[in-house]
Design brief:
By secondary structure, the chain is mainly alpha-helical. Helix content is 60%, strand content 5%. α4 runs parallel beside α6 (139-152). It is elongated and about 75 Å long.
Length: 292
């Protein structure tokens, strides 16, 4: 119909070769052959709505164009969530994965935890809490919630979630113990000085001491709380332990007052003298020793 070597015949030959069943690189995942659709007019359009968006080849008005589209958006997976090096991309992938499209609750939670770690690195702690809330409770999830609340300054909530994590099987590490200790101590200080609740403060100090029996500041704080409640024997015991662990003159001053409460004049005098050795100008200690 057309001269053998005409431009049009060469064009149709090329179009025929393109229309032969073949596998494109972008379609090898499905190994889907792209077959032509030939309309009656002279234009040849190689399309297949069945196989889109694998590839579309268009031949029209004597011009051939091959438009390659991505096979599909890569689905968010736990592996991609954990391995993505770019913080923002990792966060996006992990947040999508945590919505539930990747399988078991364990995997979903793991993606959410990893996203929370990224959010914490950006100081977006409230977003992290929102992401982790109302998920199946696991040891790892509660551990991460503890970390979020601790960094946010909500030490009571942090301690609560750390405790749940430990009960659920998270092994106690030095890092966890240190955070739980600090959380308990800070909470005790808030109760004693801000809320003025010495009884509740004693419970919080006791928890800190259980985590670290040699925590000097907790012994000092609990001794002060006992002193406030006029439980002098218990106060002297804690303050003595604090002094042994290295407390400064404040420990001696409070223990001297304990001895005053117990009417132990000699012991009180000895402690007031220790106060003046470390703080020569302390007026209360001078008055107690009748020093002008």
């Amino acid at each position: 119909m057309y001269p053998k070597h005409s431009c049009w015949s060469q064009f149709l030959l090329l179009a025929h070769k393109i229309s032969e069943p073949r596998f494109l690189i972008s379609d090898r995942i499905n190994m889907t052959p792209i077959r032509p659709n030939k309309p009656a007019n002279s234009d040849i359009v190689l399309t297949s709505t069945r196989f889109l968006p694998a590839a579309t080849a268009i031949v029209t008005a004597g011009v051939i164009a091959v438009i390659a589209t991505s096979h599909a958006q890569q689905l968010p997976t736990l592996e991609r969530c954990l391995n993505e090096a770019t913080t923002e991309r990792a966060l996006n992938i992990c947040e999508m994965a945590s919505t539930g499209a990747i399988g078991s609750d364990v995997k979903i939670n793991e993606a959410a935890i990893h996203a929370s770690e990224k959010l914490r690195s950006q100081s977006r702690h409230k977003d992290a809490i929102e992401l982790l809330t109302n998920r199946p409770s696991t040891a790892a999830l509660n551990l991460e919630l503890g970390n979020v609340y601790f960094e946010l300054g909500d030490v009571q909530s942090a301690d609560f979630h750390y405790e749940i994590a430990l009960l659920a099987g998270v092994p106690m590490t030095d890092a966890i113990r240190e955070r739980m200790l600090n959380a308990a101590y800070i909470y005790a200080e808030e109760l004693q000085f801000s809320a003025v609740k010495p009884e509740a403060a004693i419970d919080a100090y006791t928890r800190a001491i259980e985590l670290d029996p040699d925590h000097m500041r907790s012994h000092l704080g609990r001794g002060q709380a006992y002193l406030t409640l006029q439980q002098f024997q218990l106060a002297c015991k804690d303050l003595g332990r604090a002094i042994t662990l290295g407390a400064d003159w404040t420990g001696y001053l409070m223990r001297a007052r304990c001895h005053d409460g117990l009417a132990d004049t000699e012991a009180a005098r000895s402690d007031y003298e220790m106060v003046l050795k470390q703080y020569p100008g302390h007026l209360a200690a001078k008055r107690a020793l009748s020093i002008p």
